[in-house]
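User: Predict structure, ligand adenosine-5'-diphosphate.
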Amino acid sequence: MGKNQPEEEWNEEEEELDNSDNNDLMGDDFEKNIDNLVKKQIDSKRVKKIDQTKKRATVDSVFDERMYLQVSKILKSGILSRIEGIISAGKEANVYLAYGQNNKEYAVKIYKIDTNTSKWMRNYIIGDPRFKRIPHNVSKIIYLWASKEFKNLKRAYKVGLNVPEPLFIKNNILIMDYIGFGSIPAPKLKDIKFPKDPINLLSEVLYFIKNLYQKAALVHGDLSEFNILYHNQKPVIIDISQAVTIHHPKAEILLVRDIKNIFNYFETIGVEVPNREDFYYEVINLE
Ligand SMILES: Nc1ncnc2c1ncn2[C@@H]1O[C@H](COP(=O)(O)OP(=O)(O)O)[C@@H](O)[C@H]1O
Ligand SMILES: [Mg+2]
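Assistant: Predicted complex:
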């Protein structure tokens, strides 16, 4: 597949989980009950902090007013039944472990509405043919960013790449498959001292880079051992919000950086890596 490949049309309709059944439940009593439930669940805006290293499970104050409201809303909508705790509190987003009605685990990523963040985000959105109009409003930029992560995940997932399946997007809230065992989220690759079979691991990450480019027509743009989870001895690639289409003016420079990060990481753990340049040309299909 070369760069002349036509852009895939996005089917916006399939992006939102069908939530219509929940509306029938939205009577007064239901509202009251669920209000109590939500209060109990996230009382005093505190929630358990979940640690990948299993060493800590402390209660932490992690909801600011706005996050609290957003979390209340998704609990009320019935998509999720409870928030188990926070996995990660980052600069741009918090990630929570939650349970659905079916008692299945989900990861919930909530982007912070922040003026500074929205400024650099614009650079990645501008030039992406999927986004025709760029809003000025800060919240709207962040919503667009969250939907970009959703779309990128979907695109990668559809072509069979190892990413969490995205399930729901609404404003700045993204719900996706949870990667982990029980309440212990999968560790990041950077936290694994000696991954088993690192040669195979490298080849799986290279497969990801190549097929993300060739089949999903995307470049991750922030690929490193920080954004790869190690689950069942396999890499699961996350944090794909900044990924750009291969037509984006920054696509090539981002691809070079991704390759550099990954090759450097595997070299530091003692794995022999192929020639970087050869691999680059292999990815962009100019062997
Ligand atoms: N689907 C997921 N399942 C389990 N843990 C996740 C999932 N998505 C993210 N995480 C955890 O949350 C952290 C932050 O998520 P990430 O998408 O990398 O956001 P950012 O780095 O922008 O804060 C990850 O390093 C990982 O530990
Ligand atoms: Mg990250």
